[in-house]
Amino acid sequence: MNLLAVGSVALDSVKTPFGEVSEVLGGSATYFATAASYFTRVGIVAVVGADFPKEHVTFLKTRPIDLEGLAVTDGRTFRWRGEYGYQLNEARTLETQLNVFQQFNPQLPPDYRTAELVFLANIDPDLQLEVLKQTRSPELVALDTMNFWIDGKREALLKVLGKVNIVIVNDGEARQLVQEVNLVKVGREILKLGPKILIIKRGEYGALLFTRDAIFSAPAYPLETVFDPTGAGDSFAGGFMGHLARTKDFGMSNLRQAVILGSVMASYCVEAFSLERFRTLHSEEILGRYREFKRMTHFEEL
Amino acid sequence: MNLLAVGSVALDSVKTPFGEVSEVLGGSATYFATAASYFTRVGIVAVVGADFPKEHVTFLKTRPIDLEGLAVTDGRTFRWRGEYGYQLNEARTLETQLNVFQQFNPQLPPDYRTAELVFLANIDPDLQLEVLKQTRSPELVALDTMNFWIDGKREALLKVLGKVNIVIVNDGEARQLVQEVNLVKVGREILKLGPKILIIKRGEYGALLFTRDAIFSAPAYPLETVFDPTGAGDSFAGGFMGHLARTKDFGMSNLRQAVILGSVMASYCVEAFSLERFRTLHSEEILGRYREFKRMTHFEEL
């Protein structure tokens, strides 16, 4: 297998100014894998409870997603409940039920251990380390994290950061990680922690890619209807890593294209609740929106 | 004359996390004209008091700026005092002394009346209308405004909007103008009010240009040291309008280049207090940063 993702598979209840859904399919690994599956075959490492609806498994199987690493254990599936205001930029978490996720002990099936690209979604950095131990020298490892681990498990997080190639976080998390406001300085400081590449996601403002000697700035797609931002960041990571897994080219030019494809996948994700938009999305639409990004950002030399 | 700007010439007292200055040169017309003067000759229509320091007049005269329209009247010059927090995104106004600006009655010298491009900086929409009456069918008129006029002088503002070609405002003002959060809808609604072109400035997130059938998205230059954001928006407008006045090409490709040049001028503006950075800025630096914008945003077709 080319690409593997470890993270959560969840049941989300979400309220936005445009509607409300209850116990729908969610989770970082779910969004990541679904977005990545438009580019390559991808394996999920996650855990669900015995109550996890079969229809969700059926949906994931319609995509080139490998579910051998999805453990089903006694108990209830991880649940998250949150809401968004009109600005849609930040979720307010109303309830988190870890349930079976509390005892999550990621075990990679033998086929997964040779994955060339690995995405460590936002989970306990100790578990991220545990997953890395089970892999056999992947070519590229990317990591996401959040304020909860930056504050509460800093030491373990710094240890994983020393072992990954790419960090993909939002602007608030990036600033918190190195205690600095200015994003150019933030970029430089985070790259000192080990990773060669940093991507800062800025929601409706796009994304920035930092390497030691270049910055690439990508806008977000200006959408007329943003329905539900849940999963946008993981869909971005899925498009980004999916393209890299398919092309096996980690040069700057291809990294830039991967960022745009990540933005395209995030833009589709937020057009509907849960993963609904991905049930109808076709590859030609992805290419079409990529071209719109190109038109939208292009300007001539003077 | 090619380009004329009506607005304020002021003495600013500004405090940022990086320092503090008292009664330094400021004002919308000042920032606009100084930035535009790198591209074309520009005339100022504004008023100052008898106390306005001669050194500021001397500085403005070192640039291709025409001061025939700068009235000097009895009384004190317009003064503004404000401060910025670490986020540097929004000024907190601590004091506004209108002084001679209160009786500002813009009079265009005969030479100014045939200006081909006109910039109406953020002043009372009734005064913006008065200025337009004194011009002889300019080719392109751009307008800036603010929450104070959107709330308090809506009718007069809508009247001016029906007579201008370009609106240049920040995202908060744009949203307030048409009572809508989503920027794509905001763009469409504002273009219905008359202007053919809308530019939404988003500070550290760049700028969006809307026409009836296209959107252009430009990032801001990622600066390591942002010293003082005062005047960034007017410097943007100055670079934008200056380039258009110099090239007399109002096609989409040239408008995009003008937006990038506006962003370049804004990025230099914020590197120092007041207009200090413009005292040393050379044209080659502008071209160099334009090229960096190109490198920073470029990606290949798939």
Textual characterization of the structure:
- The structure is a homodimer of 302-residue chains.
- Chain A is of the alpha/beta class.
- Chain A contains ten helices and 14 strands.
- In chain A, strands 1, 4, 5, 6, 9, 10, 11, 12, 13 and 14 form a ten-stranded mixed sheet that branches.
- The radius of gyration of chain A is 18 Å and the shape is globular.
- The termini of chain A are far apart.
- The mean pLDDT of chain A is 96.
Jot down its keywords:
alpha/beta, homodimer, 302 residues
Give a nutshell description of this structure.
With 302 residues, chain A is of the alpha/beta class. Helix content of chain A is 36%, strand content 23%.
Q: What is the topological layout?
A:
The structure is a homodimer of 302-residue chains.
Chain A: E1 3-6, E2 10-16, E3 19-26, H1 28-36, E4 42-49, H2 54-62, E5 65-66, E6 70-73, E7 79-83, E8 92-97, E9 117-120, H3 125-134, E10 140-143, H4 147-152, H5 154-161, E11 166-170, H6 171-178, H7 183-192, E12 197-201, E13 207-210, E14 215-218, H8 232-247, H9 252-269, H10 283-297
Parallel strand pairs in A: 1-4, 1-9, 2-7, 4-5, 4-6, 9-10, 10-11, 11-12
Antiparallel strand pairs in A: 2-3, 7-8, 12-13, 13-14
Helix pairs in contact in A: 1-8, 3-5, 6-7, 8-9, 9-10
How does the overall form of chain A come out from the CA principal axes? Answer: globular
Instruction: Identify low-pLDDT runs of chain A.
Output: none
Structural class, judged by helices and strands of chain A? Answer: alpha/beta
- Largest β sheet strand count, sense and barrel closure of chain A: 10 strands, mixed
The whole-angstrom Rg of chain A is: 18 Å
Identify the most extensive interface between protein chains. Answer: A-B, 40 and 40 residues
Helix content class of chain A: 25-40%
